[in-house]
Design a protein that fits this description.
The complex is a heterodimer of chains A (about 240) and B (about 100). Chain A is built from 12 helices and no strands. By secondary structure, chain A is mainly alpha-helical. Chain A has 2 domains: about 160 residues, no CATH class; about 55 residues. The mean pLDDT of chain A is about 90. Chain B is flat, with a radius of gyration of 20 Å. Chain B is an all-alpha fold and about 100 residues long. Chain B has one domain. Helices cover about 75% and strands about 0% of the residues of chain B. The mean pLDDT of chain B is about 90. The chains are: A mainly alpha (about 240), B mainly alpha (about 100). The interface between A and B is large, with 110 and 81 residues.
Chain lengths: ~240, ~100
Amino acid sequence: MNNNITNWKNGIKDGIPICLGYFAVSFTFGILAKGAGLTPFQAVLMSATNFTSAGQFAALGLIGASATYMEMAITQLVINMRYFLMSCALSQKLDPRAAFPHRFLVAFGNSDEIFGLSVCKEGKLNPFYNYGLFIVAMPGWALGTLCGTVSGSLLPERMISALSIALYAMFIAVIIPPAKVNKLLAGIIILSMITSLLFTQVSILSLVTPGFKIIILTVLIAGIAAFLFPVKEVANER
Amino acid sequence: MSGNVYIYILVMAGVTYLIRLMPLTLIRKEINNVYIKSFLYYVPYVTLAVMTFPAILGATATIWSGLAGFIVAVLLAYRGGNLFKVSLLACLTVFIIELFVPGVH
């Protein structure tokens, strides 16, 4: 019980950078949603129920082009397939003592950022940490959307540009510390970044969408690393 | 636009939620296979690294502020800065650099 409250509070604290970063991204989304003909209510509803950036941006294009519902479903499936991998990793990370219904709630909030922070925590994962992250991150995402649709000039470009780096900086703060003590992880991270860069520079590879790039590289690199360097005891890593 | 926006939203929310939900509810037991366990252990590091770089260089108004933010974030993270500090100082770096880069904003 006490443990749940501590985890909840830690989640809220760690969620602040997500909130800031989300505000910047969803503000841009709001501006585009308005341009695509959505009302502020519809745009916020989309953000509150989907809670994903790439999928929502793609949806605007599809709605504008009067795509069929099936096309919408398939596009979302393709773009958001990476969450499948993330949820697999999270399924092993969750504390087995947490009751089954927690998995339904944790799944809803499993965005790239909440995944990144929660899966890299030490030991087993208490779902209340995720709830703490979510309760701070979601208002940033929904409010940013609202502000973008209502007034695209509410925030100066300068501020949006600065806030746009928040989520990436946060990812760096998550992956660097363990890489500092584990040279193998450091190598894997550097290799991942270099191949990711290659995907944007080599003309044939640059045709691959960002969502699929993540899936392809994750399966390849994590797959090869697991084969070459199996981890003996990963249940409570580090 | 001819379709109903609310049905679009329902369809996309449903698909996205199912993708996130299925592994979490279907894989409830701890996996004992060393290979799969190791694979899942490496997944977040690869995923986050791939998502961060080189996207971080294009996230801001100019590549120079993105690069500066990236370097500051790596240095601070290496020195053990917490999430909030690393994130906020990277934002601040971008803000300051863009004050000096001509032609931005």
